[in-house]
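User: My collaborator and I are trying to settle a disagreement about how two of our proteins should look. Neither of us wants to argue from intuition anymore, so we agreed to look at predicted structures for both before our next call. Could you fold the first one, then the second, and keep them clearly separated?

Assistant: That sounds like a sensible way to settle it. I'll keep them separate. The first protein:
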Amino acid sequence: MGCAHGKCCNRDSSTSDEDAGHHQRGIRPYKNKDGLTQRSLELVHVPSHNFTLQYSSLTQHGYYPDTTDRENQDSFCIKTQIQAITVLVVGDTLYVANVGDSRAVIAVKDGDRILAEDLSVDQTPFRKDEYDRVKLFGARVLSVDQVEGLKDPDIQHWGDEESHGGDPPRLWVPNGMYPGTAFTRSVGDSTAEKIGVIAVPEISIVRLTPSHLFFVVASDGVFEFLSSQTVVNMATAYKDPSDACTAIAGDSYKRWLELENRTDDITIIIVQIKGLSNQSGVGTTDSEVHSRPCQTGGSMNQSAAIVPPLMHQRPLESDVG
């Protein structure tokens, strides 16, 4: 599930209306019967540090082959609940704010290798700190198999997010079969709030260097079956971020159908970093990362170039351009 929002504060003048498909803000959504929405290539110049961001995004709505008109179970289970992740570029610094289990990842060149470095940490019961916090609010933390009596509910260990086999731990009220959320933070969920689901974002700050090639912001529909490194490897293979978005979303879609016989909503944004040098005089060679939670004050009003939040909600026409 996911809905991509992009806001450019300094659009590159070289992106013409003709190139952008004569669509408002250079965004041309393409839709088919399977609910595909894609943004054309966008360019944003960051004048304070003289580099360019080149990005594209794609959203594929959830799909059930057996009941094609069925509403996505995650998007519509709790209609008021939203998860969101936002990356704000201010000069040569990234500010990442996350509520939920979407993820931001940056590609870092290290010699001959390109490594994935997570800019956010999924807020799920797999994390001990989040598990302990929601338990204090009275949440039951159980997988669906445990709730249905197929597995022992007293075994409070589910492996990790890479090996849970499609049945992650979820949050339930003490004496009910709801809400069943697989995340521990969201916005606007009054029911889950009673068992510890909060809307407080975790914030990380990263100073960009020439070793940072691009970053990816994507929903859990992408990362359910693909690791951060796999996503970075796939994105590296494409010069055009639009093609990279298509390839990653397509592979995610295929894996969902193979393993679950359905798909989650799949949203991905890829932002390439072009022309960044060390001329700012910062003097750092490695990325500087401050994370979880880093709720700092201070102004972020200089050279704000792009704000691409990704939200978990039902996509509306106004949301996609």
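The second protein, kept apart from the first:
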Amino acid sequence: MKTKPTIIACAVFLIAAFSLFVVFYQSHVRHMGMAQVHDHADIIASSLWTFEKSSPTAYLTLAAKANGYERILVRDDKGEMFLDISGPPPTRADEFLLAAHLIPIYQLTSNVEFEGQTIGSISAAWRCRAIYTHFYILFCVFLVLAGLWFFLKLVDANRTLESRVKDRTAELEAENRERKRTEEALRQATLVVESSPAMLFRWKAEEGWPVVLVSENVTQIGYTSEELLSGSIAFSSIVHPNDLARIGDEVQTYSASGVDHFQQEYRIITKDGRVRWVDDRTAIERDAEGRISHYQGIVVDITERKLAERALHESERKFRAVVENAQAIIFVLDKDGVFQLSEGQDLDKLGLRPGQVVGQSAIEIYAAIPSVLEGIRMALNGKTNHTINVFGNVVFDTVYSPYLDSDGQQNGVVGVAIDITERRRAEEALQASEARLRAVIDEAPFGAHTYELHDDDRLVFLGGNRSADRILGIDHSPLIGETLEKAFPGLASTAISESYRRIAVGGESLNTDHIIYEQGQIRGAFEIHAFQTGSNRMAVFFADITERKRAEEARRKYERMVSSTQDLMALVGRDGIYEAVSESVLLAHGRARGEILGRTVSEVMGETVFQEKIRTRLEQALSGQTVRFQDVFEYAGLGRRIMDVSYFPMFDEAGNIEGVVTNGRDIT
């Protein structure tokens, strides 16, 4: 609460109230004065009638003194003076207030009546001393304001005190929280140190480096902190003897040269006798005179790093041996195409020695061989590529790759060139042989397609024989050079496309039947034999078996129609939900039709049975395969039965699989 505005508001209110009081009280006092004069008139009426002056004189003299009249005049009905009485003189205070016009003088007049007849008049000059009452009231107002001011000041002081207490309490709480955070941070730091491989030491700058502080995790080298702090084991005694003199000299050198922080690597011997490498980061501690008093160190076991460095050095040595003796050419170029490395036994095939071209520009040396320049350019642009480079009678298959530095930034090109001269000759001989074979295949009664898989995963059609033209009823010549998906769109959505790619790369083989449906009927069927013919190449032999497949399909439909009603038959949609079931299925499960239809196979057969015996086979049937197997099933209505189960894919009019027909026969 704001004290000043409140005091001002209260003062304005009280002054306004006081002003109203003065106005109304002044009027009230004057009215009371008139009433007294009337009373005086009534009292002296009989005396005025008889003109007896002694009694009214005494009375009015007393009244003038009691009421502070300045003068009282009594006249008869003819205006003649009957009595003229002077009141007591004013006091000094009254004189001051009269001079200041704070005490008004009122002329109070009243008729004197006797037995209902006016017999004269009385008038009094009255000093209205209501100002004293006003002063009292005003004093009370000031007292109220002063009391209110003191009260508000007390409230403000109390609130200020409460605020300060609250602020100080908050500060203390904040300090307490900060202290707790600091303590927790210290505890966490201690926990981190104790849980980390870094061991903390503080040694005296004395012979043997006595330990005065050590972290508890020193146990990782087999010693306890008590053993080191008690002096029973000197730190110098756990340093490897071959390193002790060296690190002692280094400490003396660093200390004498004014270096306050230094790093050392040396070996220590653990309590169980093992040798471990450590990295010691030491800070020198000085006293007030600047003399070295202690050493503070963070000691970290770096044995694994040392072993890794040793392994790396050994690996680099072996790599150098491999590179220098490789039956290939291994080279590294910088970003400008300048040789940084040139090694390998095959350099002599180019008339070069290892390292001979280091510092020379590959772009200038091989400016006349576009394939070399293109390979370097693509690698400098971040793309790994390989090219066939011909140097006279020698042919190299060269792989160019971006060379990345330790920050992952491209810093040049690394390449490997392998002599494929003999392979190239063999390929040419193979091509001649393939040409002869093609002549034979062209006359074969079966169709044949050949493909090549490019680096961008495009499977490109290379051609077909004359029997392929006849069987498929098309001319294959315009399709040469097109991808399989563009040349034969019908295969794009089948698994055959990916199978061909795997065959071209991995040398797998494929023997399968490819059936084409139209409006639910077999439009065409082919027996396919696919195999690899070379690197990223494959061939497909196919024969038209449409009539045979139609006969087989007709036979299967016939068999389904004449199946015994004792078999458990059902129709399962692509989503694995039962769409129709035979009565034998309901009896076997002991359920009503509504308890099976609309539910998934896993819900009806049970999740475990579904996962172990049904799921994979159902997926095979949904992919277009006919699946048959035998297994043991537990039925609520039949008990444990051995079932011969068949899954047949069901096709819609467009040839798409819309579900699976399942048939289970009890062969128990």
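Some points you might bring to the call about the second protein. The first strand starts at residue 69 and ends at 76. Residues 86 and 131 are 22 Å apart (CA to CA).
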